[in-house]
Amino acid sequence: MSKEPVAVVGIGQTRHVAARRDVSLAGLVREAARRALQDAELTWADIDAVVIGKAPDFFEGVMMPELYLADALGAVGKPMLRVHTAGSVGGSTALVAANLVAARVHGTVLTLAFEKQSESNAMWGLSLPIPFQQPLLAGAGGFFAPHIRAYMRRSGAPETIGALVAYKDRRNALKNPYAHLHEHDITLDKVMASPMLWDPIRYSETCPSSDGACAMVLTGRAGAARAPHPPAWMLGGAMRSEPTLFAGKDFVSPQAGQDCAADVYRQAGITDPRREIDGAEIYVPFSWYEPMWLENLGFADAGEGWKLTETGVTELDGALPVNMSGGVLSANPIGASGMIRFAEAALQVRGQAGEHQVDGARRVLGHAYGGGSQFFSMWLVGDRPPDS
Amino acid sequence: MTSAPRDREIAVVAFAQTAHRRTSEELSEVEMLMPVLHEVLDRTGLKTADIDFTCSGSSDYLAGRAFSFTLALDGVGAWPPISESHVEMDGAWALYEAWTKLLTGDADTALVYSYGKSSPGSVRDVLTRQLDPYYVAPLWPDSVALAALQAQALIDAGDTDEPALAAVASRNREAATTNPHAQLRGPVPQGDYLVQPLRTGDCPPIGDGAAAVILAAGDRARDLCDRPAWIRGIDHRIEAHGLGVRDLTDSPSTRLAAERAGVFERPVDTAELHAPFTAQEVVLRKALRLGEDVDVNPSGGALAANPIMAAGLIRIGEAAARIHRGASDRALAHATSGPCLQQNLVAVLEGERR
């Protein structure tokens, strides 16, 4: 028996902001879930199971918050799973939910990821105490900055590439009503003049801290046939992990990321991702990760990714648009950020991305990563079912 | 709604666990876990590279640090990179995720593990952080106090009394006499009230431990194990979080999960119940309609060893191990999470006829 094809028939997100003081955790997740149900024209009763994900529980100070959120997400009497795979969790959560449909365990599944970062200070939440981590390594930027330097040295990329990414993503965000940052007066000069946080990462090349949630309704062939709007079809999905630190680890282009992408392309029958994929929502929390991941994902040869950025290929109207939504650089509710990438990819192939829609997008990649560049989850969605 | 019949048979083919102890302060979580991973792989002759999918369960709140599971991954030996996932839940739910992965046909073997160290902190207080953060957690009602509410509700309903609860405690710990991994082996005094009506004997030991299971599909399972424990059904359900809207003397989520898992289709001979408090065994026996002829918790259950995040997976492992060695033909395994049995998982395992 082959797998059930998986379709995305409902998508909902909150307007991501620095602090949603008007809602509780339950109110935040319910807002995204209701929007996804509305989009699918379904009710809570149509949902067979709920799969929820978020990054560390310390970010809100609630241990295993899904227990408390069961009521708000209509999960009472249903199966509820809680995924946590670090920064990749939003993507992993969607894939766990997709497996429930693919395995025909359930017909229709609600999947949701969230973070309410205003409840705590995520930068220090990410800074492990000594002896687990050396002092002065404050926040994720402190961890990733040296690896960006390694990429710059290895590729010979000009210093300005990071600023170009940030300038593009923040302009894309102006076309996305759900993005956290809407910097109407953004200029390239302003990005380049912003304070240096973790050399070479400047303030404007860094993701914000956001409160937000994202939800999707996943279903099989029968559910897709009843859907009021065109579904997005999952053509391939995979997760890969490798250890945090080990001799020979390549932080610039981790093997786990390459393997994960290769698995997704194999499932989807993609042999030339650069030509066959129409756009990508890539997890870029610091600007330089756009060219780095372009190479890791096989969109460019090693050392060549920055040229796609520099020549405008990744612009919204370029040949391979990247982060049409504004990306993680424009909204980062950490646990939800991966699912937002997956959902934005689905919006594109459904033709529902509004002002940031890529014309004729038929196959779009959603990507997430986490930990010390060690956890990867990706899916490729298309406007037609697999094998059609 | 569970849909069409699934044609992939999946079994538990190996199980390993630590000797559960009050404290393991000389060991990191990785050091505690490593021997268990080696043991479970040795039982099947598999190497890390032979495992198609890995899934684990643990809690950052027990570890006291964010992303605590990333260090455990080093113990797995995730190089070359592996297909891997993690749930912030008891390992029983990690097993459920792995089961769905095998059902899709994308994997033939899976390694499932979980671990928890309760010794570094006050686990009664830590578990209060699981409660509704706005209305309940600020009051810090601890896990024993909530279990006592449930026990009192059962007594008030005439479903049990203190001598009956004491009998549950002594029977479980008596059974644990033959379990070399148990923390409490053999009878312990019922002691004084911890929170009335629960005495120390009604409560689980606090301790550290880890467990691991290997799943395999179809003929692969037969290759790896003389008598695989086939998962005939597995399901889990959650209830409302607010204790005030639940009937604490019943466990409708357990009953529903059991129905979906096919428990009631034929009698089971063994049941491993994840009931950390004596009164919860009473609730579960009722929900699962277990008669006196069923061997309940031959391992001693969670009253003999309760490493949080692993205790549920251990129930599945213990049930499977009995099938492996021919001591059971059809066993039920149960896992729970949340205050007063809020979330429950039920699996039915069977051995082939001998």
TrEMBL record, chain A:
EC number(s) stated in the UniProt entry for this protein: 2.3.1.9
UniProt keywords, alphabetically: Acyltransferase, Transferase
Organism, scientific name: Streptomyces luteogriseus
Acyltransferase is among the record's keywords: yes
Amino-acid biosynthesis found in the keyword field: no
Protein name: Acetyl-CoA C-acetyltransferase
InterPro entries: Thiolase, Thiolase-like, Thiolase_C_2
One Pfam family per UniProt: Thiolase_C_1
Ranges for domain Thiolase C-terminal: 243-372
CDD domains reported in the protein's UniProt record: SCP-x_thiolase
Superkingdom assignment: Bacteria
Gene3D superfamilies (alphabetical): 3.40.47.10
GO MF annotation, one: acetyl-CoA C-acetyltransferase activity
